[in-house]
Amino acid sequence: MTLRAKKPETIQKRFKALFYGEAGVGKTTAAIQFPKPYLIDTERGAEHQQYIDILSQNEGVIFQTSDFDEVYKEVKELLTTKHPYKTLIIDPITVIYDHLIDLSIKENIAKSKEVNSDGTEFGRHIALADRKIKPLCNMLLRLDMNIILTAHSKNEYVGGKSTNQQTFDGYKKLSYLFDLSLEIQKRERKRIAIIKKSRIKSFEDL
User: Fold this and answer.
1) Is the pLDDT confidence value at 93 over 70?
2) For residue 53, which phi and psi values (nearest 5 degrees)?
């Protein structure tokens, strides 16, 4: 058998990042500043005029849904159809993941043989939701666009103990998929981005 490896070549990589933080810290505003954004707005948070103005200035469009299947179909269309958009934003992915959790609980209850099942035994609802979101994540990695996912934040726990830090609220393996993970914070009148993970040289993870 002939070996198929070849010398590494420099390629133009698309920006793929996760922004997370509390409500109102500027995640959406930061994301839609990117070139020609295709915004999937999952909680109708981009209806205010300031967002509309930024989208218009950057030749962007908006699609509003909180349904996972609709998001999946839209991303698949972006992957397979020629279009002018350069940046895909799902804002926030937390809503989509929560929708999958709810669907998984209902599915587990319907299939359970236990009379008093609530669909969450042994974390089965989470495992099922994770399996369902993986194909979407795989498509995002293949998409020839900048990718920015925003997420709500939540308290971080390790081994059942609080770290007194914040992390993103959603599919646990999201941070592995992207080159940059930023926690967005608002401190008085300033908004700052804390680098939580980076594979980008110009964004060093301190």
Assistant:
1) yes
2) -65, -45
88 φ, ψ (degrees, to nearest 5): -100, 130
Q: Which residues contact 182 (CB under 8 A, 6 or more apart)?
A: 17, 18, 19, 20, 193, 194, 195, 196
pLDDT band at 11 (very low <50, low <70, confident <90, very high): low
β-bridge pairing 87-91 and 61-64: unpaired
Show Cβ contacts of residue 149 under 8 Å, excluding neighbours closer than 6 positions.
Answer: 17, 18, 19, 89, 90, 91, 92, 93, 140, 174, 178
pLDDT tens digits along 135-180 = 999 999 899 999 999 999 888 888 778 888 888 888 888 888 888 8
Write the Ramachandran bin of 103: left for phi over 0, alpha for psi from -120 to 50, otherwise beta. Answer: alpha
Report DSSP letters for 82-124, one per residue: --S--EEEEETHHHHHHHHHHHHHHHHHHH---TT--S-GGGH
**CA atoms of 34 and 102, how far apart (whole Å):** 32
| Consecutive H or E run containing 169 | none
Q: Is residue 99 a contact partner of residue 50, using CB atoms and an 8 Å limit?
A: no
Q: Which one-letter amino acid corresponds to residue 152?
A: H
Q: What is each CA distance from 25 to 43, 89, 103, 111, in whole angstroms?
A: 16, 17, 30, 41
Whole-angstrom Cα distance, residue 72 to residue 85? Answer: 17
- Name residue 145's amino acid: M
